[in-house]
Design brief:
This protein is an alpha/beta fold and 246 residues long. The chain has seven helices and twelve strands. α4 links the parallel β2 (58-63) and β3. α6 crosses α7 (207-217).
Length: 246
């Protein structure tokens, strides 16, 4: 299991929300009636969702891990109106959430890769498309895996750091089963090591796969950016912000 209780203390620091990220969602949401209906899938500590809730977005969040949902519910006890929060796997959103309802669906912090298989990611995209209103947006925030050499035995990913902790991540390959495995450590400022992700199967999905799925599933457009300032994606960009439109 990834991102369990020991990580909650540091998750928000290692995956911070910048003002330009909130501006990004405000801009793409400006074409819809208010309140803009926003769904965050595998939301983590839901910092993006909470910031948008403060901007009067109508917010729903889901997460695979109950710890994150419980954390949000405690944090937002006195907040009205409530953020709607559900403990759901990404592949289940189509079964339990309303069709043609959301203007924006977002999956951040590269959590989509933990779905482990492109088939499941494609299923998420199918379900998200059914939940979106006309011209709604599906947005993924993930690492630009295309820039890494996966012929190597170990692929080191960029570190993430805060004042209190550093997140180290690396990918190995199970050659027998042709699967990719993620390992991650949080090292605190007092040199305590928290091992929470060990040989976790992931799917390091590429920009090309998103393009293929977008075409097959009938999205009207797909754009790639390297940040939330709408900077066009460059081959050496660390991040991909993938924006699909229904």
């Amino acid at each position: 299991m990834i991102y369990i209780k020991k990580w909650l203390e540091h998750y928000g620091e290692l995956f911070p929300v910048a003002d330009n990220q909130i501006d990004f969602f405000n801009k793409i949401g400006s074409g819809f009636n208010t309140p803009v209906k926003f769904l965050s899938v595998d939301c983590g500590t839901a910092e993006v969702a909470q910031r948008l809730h403060e901007k009067n977005f109508d917010v729903t969040v889901t997460d695979t891990y109950k710890e994150f949902i419980d954390f949000l519910k405690v944090k937002s006890t006195n907040v009205e109106p409530k953020i709607k929060a559900f403990n759901l796997f990404p592949q289940d959103i189509g079964r339990y959430l309303g069709k043609n309802f959301f203007n924006i669906i977002y999956c951040g912090d590269y959590r989509v890769v933990f779905m482990r298989d492109k088939i499941y990611i494609s299923k998420l995209m199918i379900d998200a498309k059914s939940l979106l209103t006309n011209n709604g947006f599906l947005i993924f925030d993930l690492i630009n895996f295309t820039k890494f050499d996966f012929s190597k035995d170990i692929v080191e990913l960029p570190q993430k750091s805060s004042a209190r902790a550093t997140l180290k991540s690396w990918i190995t390959k199970d050659k027998e089963n042709v699967t990719y495995l993620l390992n991650q450590q949080v090292i605190t400022s007092n040199d305590k090591i928290i091992d929470e992700v060990k040989d976790e199967p992931i799917c390091p999905i590429s920009m090309e796969s998103f393009q293929k799925f977008s075409k097959e599933l009938g999205f009207s457009s797909i754009d790639f950016y390297s940040d939330y300032n709408f900077t066009p994606l460059q081959p050496d960009s660390e991040k991909i912000v993938c924006v699909l439109r229904k």
